[in-house]
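Standup notes
- DV: blocked on the single-chain target, sequence here:
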Amino acid sequence: MNDLLVPLVKEKHQSINHIYATHAEELGCSRRTLYSYIDACVFDVRNGDLRRAVRYKKRKKATKSSARDRSYRQGHNYEDFLKYLKEHPGTNVVEMDCVEGKKGEGKTLLTLTFRNCNLMLMFLLEHQDRECVLKVLTHLEKILGQESFKRLFPIILTDGGSEFSAREEMETFCDGSPSTVVFYCDPYSFWQKGACEKNHEYIRYIIQKGNSFADLNDKKVQLMINHINNEKMNAEAAISDTAVQFAAMFESMDDSYMQARAADVRDVSDRILGILSGAVQGGIASDVPVLLAADDLAPSETVQLDKSKILGFITAGGSGSSHTAILARTMGIPAIVGVGDALKPEYEGRSCIIDGATGNVVIDPDDMTRDYLLKKREEQLRLQRLLETLKGQPNVTKDGKSIRIYCNIGSPDDVHAVQVNDGGGIGLFRSEFLYLNSPDYPTEDQQFEAYKKVLADMGGKEVIIRTLDIGADKQIGYFNLPKEDNPAMGMRALRICLNRPEIFKTQLRALYRASAFGKLGIMFPMVTSVWEVREAKKYCEEVKRDLKAEGIPFAEDVQVGIMIETPAAAIMSDRLAKEVDFFSCGTNDLTQYTLACDRQNNDLGRFYDPHNPAVLRLLKMVTENAHKNGIWVGICGELGADLTLTETFLAIGVDELSVSPRAVLPLRNAVRMTDTRESAPRLLAAIDAEYPETL
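- DV (later): unblocked, structure below
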């Protein structure tokens, strides 16, 4: 490989990208690996060998200009820039700026970023002044030629720093002919040259702000810019890649002690990454609770929010049925999602009131609005206090029909909310958030401790834990799932577990070990066929045999159930009921797949209707098939907390409703106020009507 690289780099001056593009098969490694080897001096070449020696030519001396003189900006401000682009559409823009070193030092980095391709040039200046900037432009004129220079630099956009004040000199070549057109951003408007500022982040990851540039030279600058342009890899990425390589090396060793050191490598890497990125606990750098506004939040970001610093959050994207919104309800965080363009950057730092019940966002409320909303909040708190009197009361209708009310949780920390709100058990523990919170696959022991804690804390009440359900909008990098055009229909949930049994069996071992500490139920998500259930149960039996052989205790009476969240599972529920101990209907996905409506797409709000008779008919059919085969059926989707459907679910015969902890008492109140003798015949007739309307 060395014999291949040396002549290509040193003699033909080919870039790493070019070499890899033409000799990938001969190299036998990835482009990133090749770059790492070169950088580590594994071969007789360095990236510095790509550098071409150049000489600078002095331009004519710039005219004197006071630092306070802004006349050079006249006719060349940002408004003029936008007008020029409108008159010359498609013209390439080069953003120019300086990156300063330690305060008081002379050395500075001059950067030129091409907007059309995000390529950056970087030059070391001895002083941050006009003469040094002109020296660089003269150098570019010499090595490119005037025609190429004009083609590459038709427009330069920069800020109003004194080093860029020689506009007329920058706009002409050494012979006086026109070279480029220079425009200036508005003061304190760094976003107007956003491409340049983004690339400066890569520089700051390598050389932290405030550090000296004294030891920089042209060679080091060339190496740095090659690294940034070729890899777009900051310090965090480099550390992460290195950690992965070393962790894999330790894991491949035969010695168990050395294998365990892989976790140490990852832990140290995570700590360093936190320091480099300035990360704060919960992602909120504030001393007081705030309303968080964001374009969107992934489920993994939501679950890591520090609830002590969050009053609520607003997102431009997402929908009320997304996993992010569901998590917010589980965590008791007021949230308004899918507001679109109504969320504006200028709202940052302003006073705001959100109403999670109505979806209203009030920016800078006046005294009358503030008083009204505060009174509304007080009334809600008063009603909540009334609901508190229902704690300890049975979930029984006026005509004596009973139903179990359980809770949905996403972490062991949520058990407290279940207890405070008097939940009868846990109908859905989303185990995937153990994976979302981890930089790597959680170990068997890590999972065991989490499941054990939940079961023990629930004191013998039923706890149903859903096996891993990632994919769709819940993506985890270290799973290395292929990019899919339609991930909701792709590799997710039980499909991943059956394709990667080593992950599945690790979780099952942890679950069965934890079953010795409480009343456990195991639930498989995204089932579509009988063979999937039988395959999953086969792994359960294998794990139980292994645990028994190892002398590890577990409960023999663990119930195994499935989620009904696909039309296929609903239609086949008569057959599936013979294979399991219970059904739990995931109405969020069931609605999505039945109505062919993406639950993440807020524009489909009026089409994504869980009240649609097609969805209700499926739930009725599933319940009937479950009872015919002697098993119970519950609802663990968000529809379970919809009080407008409580009577319908009771009429259908649903045995259990699992909701967010805060919804337990309102749901109990609705159940206790219902008389199914009056409502059931009417509601069942409506579902089965020849031309049913949405209920």
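- Follow-up: The CA atoms of residues 317 and 338 lie 4 Å apart.
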